Amino acid sequence: MAKRDFYEVLGVARGASADEIKKAYRKKAKELHPDRNSDNPNAEAQFKEVNAAYEALKDPDKKAAYDRFGHAAFEGGMGGGPRPGGPGFGGGGDFASAFSNVFDDLFGDFMGGGPGGRQRATRGSDLRYNLRIKLEDAYRGLQKTINVPGSVACDICSGTGAAGGAEPATCPTCSGMGKVRAQQGFFTVERTCPTCGGMGQIIKNPCKACGGAGRVEKDRALSVNIPPGVETGTRIRLAGEGEAGLRGGPPGDLYIFIEVADHPIFERDGVTLFCRVPVSLTTAALGGEIEVPTIDGGRSRVKVPEGSQSGKQMRLRGKGIPALRGGGHGDLLIELAVETPVNLTARQKELLREFEELSEENNPEGSSFFRKVKSFWEGMKS
């Protein structure tokens, strides 16, 4: 029986691109898989035919030979390449061998198959360091030395993991692939090579200092520059200061997460600071000046207007936190808290009662509130 044209088998034109051929092959392979066609006795043969066609057309050299000579290119001396149905195509062998090729093409990208899927030198892990600082440090910035536990490249073997500068050898179990395959029925299962741990290489004479890992545990002292304006949650990245890579791989990064501690005097909201300052009853009533602290360690005098109430805010411009990436400073908001005197003497109480009798018209907020209350009660009665 004459062999069908490979392009016809895949359902593509002769001028189809490599991507079009691959896409058509995947579609056909799924459609004709015997597991999906248990009622079709020809499914396995058709599946092998599709596999053979793709094996010929996916390779540029084989495709060029087939375009010129047809099926004769793979038979009897016309190029010496594998023929459909022969060992090179997996068509003449068992069905599992054919399906192994399908598995590679359909799932190789996800499983990391093929020589490009292995990693001989592995990048080191990233590290996280939590740093707690004062609000004053967040205001002015800080240069701080921190101790970071982790791994560094082994000095003895220069990070290669091999003693005496020897080169790692190709793993004999996986032939450098880093993965091994086991046949289970129709399926080929791919696993990490147990001999080399997926590295693709083994070290016959490992370095005694690091045991062949290429890195050793060691604490490091790092100087960190904390810029002005940082706040809780700010993340600072130090490239290359994380864990050392495995067998000469690149190091990871170190991420410093900032936490700004609460302050006993100031509260912060972005670049704005708040400070609640108590004032005496007489100062609030008569007016005057108070002295307030600022985050830079200085002090400022603030004028309290006559008749100030609790909660009144006054703004000191430029006395807040600097913006992290420039743009000036925020403001400091002073909030007045009018204090009620306690532990009064008899004379003080007498004076306050006398003051109360003379102050009926001196409490505008209270008078306004009780007028509203009176109106509310009258409304409820009606």
TrEMBL record:
Cofactor binding description: Binds 2 Zn(2+) ions per monomer.
Positions of the J domain: 5-70
Subcellular location: Cytoplasm
Positions of region (Disordered): 297-316
Highest rank taxon of the organism: Bacteria
Requisite cofactors: Zn(2+)
Function: Participates actively in the response to hyperosmotic and heat shock by preventing the aggregation of stress-denatured proteins and by disaggregating proteins, also in an autonomous, DnaK-independent fashion. Unfolded proteins bind initially to DnaJ; upon interaction with the DnaJ-bound protein, DnaK hydrolyzes its bound ATP, resulting in the formation of a stable complex. GrpE releases ADP from DnaK; ATP binding to DnaK triggers the release of the substrate protein, thus completing the reaction cycle.
Entry's free-text remark on domains: The J domain is necessary and sufficient to stimulate DnaK ATPase activity. Zinc center 1 plays an important role in the autonomous, DnaK-independent chaperone activity of DnaJ. Zinc center 2 is essential for interaction with DnaK and for DnaJ activity.
Assigned protein family: Belongs to the DnaJ family.
Annotated protein name in UniProt: Chaperone protein DnaJ
